[in-house]
Amino acid sequence: MATELHADGDTLFGLADLGFGCPELGTFSLSELAAIRLPFGLGIERDLLFASDVPLSVWARTARLSGSILLAERLAHTRGAILSDPLPSSDEDG
After folding, report:
1. Among candidates 90, 81, 84, which has minimal Cα distance to 61?
2. N or C: where does the chain have the smaller number of CB atoms within 10 Å of the terminal CB?
3. Would residue 83 be called left, alpha or beta, if left means φ above 0 and alpha means ψ between -120 and 50 degrees?
4. What is the pLDDT of residues 72-90, one digit of tens each?
5. What does the alpha-carbon distance between residue 14 and residue 77 come to, in Å, rounded to a whole number?
6. Are 13 and 2 contacting, i.e. CB atoms less than 8 angstroms apart?
7. How far apart are CA 27 and CA 67, in angstroms?
């Protein structure tokens, strides 16, 4: 989830999820993303329809708590809430 493109045209800033369960804010390379090849020759693509009124910091917190950006997005949709209180604390009864 990139929010900024630096003046060099390659360095992005945003929320990155490498699939290890610890999404984080930082910089990453647009050219490296473009070079990734997934199974069946697929590549990384932009989601042109993604929009959010939620600050990136809230997305980052939710993604860290849930372990992935995709799960954070699913939680937002299934709970009908927009990431303000994404997960119950471990001491809540269930």
Report:
1. 84
2. C
3. left
4. 888 877 765 555 554 455 4
5. 21
6. yes
7. 19
